Amino acid sequence: MSMTFFTLAFGVLAIASGTFALTCYYCVLGNAVCGEPFDAFAKGVYIISNCTSCSKITIGSIVSRGCGTAFNGCKDDVSGQSTCNCFTNLCNGSSHITVTIGTVLLGHVIMILKNLF
Asked: What separation in angstroms does the CA of 85 have from each of 1, 2, 107, 112, 117?
């Protein structure tokens, strides 16, 4: 019982810590400064607020950065588009988006809660 309580409490804290608005890099698809290597200080790169996640979308060598959707990590589709989302401020500025330990733990908490209810 105490382990379940600890897991639930930790999950609530993890969810609460991720509900604040994020700040992300923004540059439009096809803008050369948006690609790799990424220069966050280049003209045409902006910082936007109030995002629920940050994203980096890559189609071939063309890159776009901005606000994202609710999933964390990267997904590739059949057309060759790669979409990566992350949940920390300015996390979409790197060439590789990594999954944080908090996100991994959140996934475990969701699975436990699903099994409990």
From this structure: 35, 34, 15, 24, 29
What does the alpha-carbon distance between residue 83 and residue 67 come to, in Å, rounded to a whole number?
11
Flag whether 70 is in a domain: yes
Residue-number span of the structural domain to which 72 is assigned: 20-99
Take residue 34 and report the two structure tokens written for it. 């948006």
Give the closest residue to 6 by CA, choosing from 117, 112, 115, 101: 112
Using one digit for the tens of pLDDT, what is the confidence trace for 6-44?
344 344 434 444 456 999 999 987 788 898 889 999 999
| 86 Cβ neighbours under 8 A, 6+ residues apart | 53, 54, 55, 68, 72, 92, 97, 98, 100
| Total domains in the fold of the chain | 1
**What is the DSSP code string of 63-105?**
EEEEE--S--EEEE-TTSEEEEEE-STTGGGSSS----HHHHH
